[in-house]
Amino acid sequence: MSTVLAIETSCDETAVAIVNNRHVYSSVIASQIPIHQQYGGVVPEVASRQHLEIVNQAIAQAMDESHIEWGQIDGIAATCAPGLVGALLVGLTAAKTLAMVHQKPFLGVHHLEGHIYATYLSESTLDPPFLSLLVSGGHTSLIYVKDCGNYETVGETRDDAAGEAFDKVARLLKLGYPGGPIIDKLAQEGNPQAFALPEGKISLPGGGYHPYDSSFSGLKTAVLRVVQQLEKDGEQVPLADVAASFQETIARSLTKRAIACARDYGLDTIAVGGGVAANSGLRKHLQAAVTQHNLQRVLFPPLKFCTDNAAMIGCAASDHLSRGHTSPLTLGVHSRLPLTQVMQLY
Q1: pLDDT of residue 35
Q2: CB-based burial of residue 247 (10 Å sphere; 0-12 exposed, 13-18 middle, 19+ buried)?
Q3: How far apart are the first and last CA of the chain?
Q4: Residue 14's pLDDT is what?
Q5: Taking the chain (346 residues) in consecutive chunks of 10 residues, what is each chunk's mean pLDDT?
Q6: Whose CA is closest to 83, among 109, 120, 64?
Q7: What DSSP character marks residue 98?
Q8: 236: phi then psi, degrees, rounded to nearest 5
């Protein structure tokens, strides 16, 4: 397999890693969370400028920690879609420059494909076909993984992504940013049955509901109404109970759809990726449901590979490069690009 230096700058982490297949030689992640916390969310222009300041240092650190020489690197990769355009351009430009200077093949990698490959980094026995549940701040999808670069999106959110809902509810409850870890921690102290919150459902034209698609905007509104009613009645908002009930509803909704999808498609393995894969409620629900429905296993990446990182991008790029896939140096960035179009990058 190929050894790849990969750069990830799609949002608010500047990350560089050196990876060969499923072995990580080094992984450097510089998070911008402290910078964006004062704004309550990611500011694209601020994120881009931070990437510019940090990317060279991150590359040098990754090379130093890997004990790998440039002559041992087979290719240079960078996330090119989807993401914040300015942020993506920083990583893509750095990767193209390194590829030209060191005369190495260049690969543009789809960010969501990286999240699929995050589980490969800790699971040597994982191979397609399997179902991938991608849950992050910007994406919530059920992906039928058939092979490297061959994906079918079978379910997705119609509005807010799960991670986005966590951030918005945390802001509503005045808990801070990012919302996912804060709500998860607070939920441990609360009663998940304290408030009956609705699972979003997507109606079908002929009647009934879509079995795999999700909706979380209504859930967010339901939490707002609970808080408003409590305040109107002069009661103190039980933050832990609200957080626990909200997290329970999201975990139950995602689990129900993932299990139904896996069974309908005859897949016995579910691999979870994205920042929300670190959520304890989701992990608990999925692990129990897999056992209950006699599926083989549910797999989660290590916590350090749930959020954005370059190791997962390098793992995907290593597989593509070993199959002879490379990208042209004229490749641009895309704020949006369906995962089903990933082979257009090569």
Answers
A1: 87
A2: buried
A3: 18
A4: 97
A5: 96 96 97 86 91 97 98 98 97 98 98 97 95 93 98 96 94 93 97 95 91 94 96 96 98 97 98 96 97 96 95 98 98 96 97
A6: 109
A7: H
A8: -75, 135
Rounded Cα distance between 133 and 109, Å, is 19
Concatenated DSSP letters of 225-287: HHHHHHHHTTPPP-HHHHHHHHHHHHHHHHHHHHHHHHHHTT--EEEEESGGGG-HHHHHHHH
Burial class (CB in 10 A: 0-12, 13-18, 19+), 141: buried
| Gap between the Cα atoms of 202 and 281, Å rounded | 23
Give which of 332, 298, 316 is closest to 91, Cα–Cα: 332
Residues across the chain: 346
Letter for the amino acid at 313? I
Residue given tokens 């350090």 in the structure block? 304
Q: CA-to-CA distance for 223 and 172, rounded, in angstroms? A: 9
Q: Note the pLDDT of residue 1.
A: 82
Distance CA 197, CA 158 (A): 18
